[in-house]
Design a protein that fits this description.
Substrate binds at residues 65, 158, 296, 329, 415. Helix content is 38%, strand content 18%. The protein is built from 13 helices and 18 strands. The mean pLDDT is 95.
Length: 456
C-alpha cells in the first residue's frame, strides 16, 4: 500500500536531490544516488518514500546489513542508549575505564569459549580485523618470529574495507582487486568445497574436501616460516558470496594452526550471535579460535561497535614483547553508548524464551519453505538456507535497480549483489513476516525474469 502527501513529495524530492548532488553511497559512483528515503523503522519494517513522495512499507530483508537482529527502534536498546547518554556519552579509554565497558567484557567472556580471556573493544568490524591481524603479528614477533608476517586464508573471503582487512579478502574476485599495490601480499588457498547442512549431517563432496585439505596443508608447509596466522569466516563466507562450506574444513585449519604454531583468527562479525544456527559458527566444527572478531549484531544494529577476544597466551606474548603493548587505540574504542547497547543486545539474544535460539530456527524453517518456490524460476542457479540466511543465486549478475524496485513494490527491501539475491532478516520477524519476505523475493525475481524475457 502506498500513500502520498504534498509535504512527503517535497521532502523526498529535496532529500534525494541533495543526496544525488553530495552524498557518496557504498560501492557506487559519486552520483549514483539512492532511490528511496527512509522515514522511519519499526521492528522488521521500514517506511520508505520514493521520489514522488509515495510511501512504501517494506520488510527489511537485509536486517540493515545483518546487524539489526532485534528490529528497528527496539525499546530495550533505545532505553539503554538514552539512559547511558544522560550520564556519560563518551570518554577516552586510555588510562580510564567505566562500568559499561567492564560489564560488556564480562558478558562476552561468559558467552564465548573459556580459552578466550582478553577483550579489545573496537569501533567497527573492519577495525576489529585490523586489531586481530596486528596482535597476531605482534605475538609472533614477541616469540622471536618477526619474519612471520603474512596470513594464510581462503579464496572467496571478505573481512572489511580497511587496508589490512583488504589484504586478506579475495584478491581476484573480491571487491578490492583495484588496490593490490596498496596491500600486503598474503597467501590464498582455494576455498573449501560447498556443503549443505541436513538432518543427517553436512553434505559435501568428500573427495573434493580431501583434495582441498591436501592443498591447504601443502601451502601451510610451503610457507610455514612466513605465516603468522590463518584468518577465515567460519562455515559461511558472507559478502564474498554467501557461500557455505563444511565444518570439517574448519577443523583442518585448526589442526594446521596447531601443527605450525599459527594463530587461528575467526572472523564472526557476520556469522556470530546465532546467524548460522549456532551461537558462534565455530561451534559447527567444535573449534575454538585463538582470536575471535565480533560485530554487527553485537549492538543489535543500533550503533557501530565490535570486539576482539584472544587467548591469554597471545596477550602474555605481546605484553612481554617489544613494545610490550598492543599498538592500537581507536578514539571511540569502548564508547559507553556502544557498550550499553551491546549489553542490552546480548540480554535480548540470550533470552531463553524469545532469544536467538528460538527465533533463528523458526526463521530457518520459514526461509526453507518460502524460498523453495524460486528453484524453478528462469535464471536461478541455486537456492540455499543456513540458519537465518537465505540465498537465491542467479546464473547471471542481478539487475540491481530493477530487482530492488520490484521487491519494494511487493513490500520488501533487498540489496542484491553480483549474482546473489539474499536475505538476513531481523530475528524478531514473525513466521508471517518471513512468508511475506520470501514471497516478495521470489516474486521480484520472477518479475525481473519475465521483463528480461519480454525485452529479449
Amino acid at each position: 500500500m502506498t500513500r502520498r502527501s504534498v509535504s512527503d513529495t517535497t521532502v523526498a524530492r529535496d532529500l534525494l536531490r541533495l543526496d544525488r548532488d553530495h552524498l557518496w553511497h557504498p560501492y557506487t559512483a559519486a552520483r549514483d544516488s539512492a532511490h528511496h528515503v527512509v522515514r522511519d523503522g519499526d521492528g522488521p519494517w521500514l517506511t520508505l518514500l520514493d521520489a514522488d513522495g509515495r510511501e512504501h512499507r517494506a520488510l527489511d530483508g537485509m536486517g540493515s546489513w545483518w546487524a539489526m537482529v532485534h528490529g528497528h527502534r527496539h525499546p530495550a536498546l533505545v532505553e539503554a542508549v538514552t539512559e547511558q547518554a544522560s550520564r556519560l556519552a563518551h570518554v577516552m579509554f586510555g588510562g580510564l575505564t567505566h562500568g559499561p565497558a567492564v560489564a560488556l567484557a564480562e558478558r562476552l567472556l561468559e558467552l564465548t569459549p573459556a580459552e578466550l580471556e582478553h577483550v579489545f573493544l573496537a569501533d567497527s568490524g573492519s577495525v576489529s580485523v585490523e586489531v586481530a591481524l596486528k596482535l597476531t603479528h605482534q605475538a609472533q614477533a614477541a616469540r622471536g618470529r618477526p619474519e612471520r608476517d603474512r596470513f594464510l586464508t581462503v579464496r572467496g573471503g571478505y573481512h572489511g574495507d580497511t587496508i589490512g582487512a583488504m589484504s586478506v579478502c579475495d584478491p581476484v574476485n573480491g571487491m578490492h582487486a583495484a588496490f593490490g599495490a596498496m596491500v600486503h601480499t598474503n597467501i590464498f588457498a582455494p576455498r573449501p568445497p560447498a556443503a549443505r547442512p541436513t538432518a543427517a549431517g553436512w553434505q559435501t563432496d568428500d573427495a573434493a574436501l580431501e583434495s582441498w585439505a591436501h592443498e591447504f596443508r601443502r601451502l601451510a608447509d610451503q610457507h610455514h616460516d612466513e605465516v603468522a596466522g590463518v584468518i577465515v569466516e567460519p562455515v559461511l563466507q558472507g559478502a564474498g558470496g554467501m557461500y557455505v562450506y563444511a565444518p570439517e574444513a574448519l577443523r583442518v585449519m585448526r589442526e594446521v594452526c596447531d601443527e605450525h604454531g599459527f594463530t587461528l583468527i575467526a572472523d564472526e562479525i557476520a556469522t556470530g550471535f546465532g546467524r548460522t544456527g549456532r551461537w558462534l559458527a565455530c561451534e559447527w566444527a567444535e573449534v575454538v579460535p585463538d582470536v575471535l572478531c565480533l560485530g554487527k549484531a553485537l549492538t543489535g544494529g543500533i550503533m557501530t561497535g565490535a570486539a576482539v577476544l584472544c587467548t591469554r597466551e597471545i596477550a602474555d606474548a605481546i605484553s612481554s614483547g617489544t613494545p610490550p603493548a598492543l599498538m592500537h587505540g581507536p578514539t571511540f574504542m569502548a564508547n559507553p553508548l556502544f557498550c550499553a547497547a551491546a549489553c542490552a543486545s546480548l540480554d535480548l539474544l540470550a533470552d531463553p524464551e524469545n532469544g536467538w535460539s528460538t527465533q533463528v530456527p523458526t526463521i530457518e524453517r520459514g526461509l526453507q519453505d518460502g524460498l523453495d518456490a524460486a528453484r524453478g524460476l528462469p535464471g536461478v542457479a541455486d537456492v540455499r538456507v543456513l540458519g537465518g540466511v537465505g540465498v537465491v543465486e542467479m546464473t547471471e549478475p542481478v539487475d540491481l535497480p530493477r530487482l530492488t524496485a520490484a521487491a519494494v513494490a511487493r513490500g520488501v527491501w533487498l540489496r542484491p549483489f553480483g549474482r546473489l539475491v539474499y536475505v538476513m532478516p531481523p530475528y524478531v520477524s514473525t513466521p508471517a513476516e518471513i512468508e511475506h519476505l520470501c514471497s516478495g523475493l521470489v516474486g521480484a525475481v520472477a518479475d525481473v525474469a519475465h521483463t528480461q524475457d519480454a525485452n529479449a
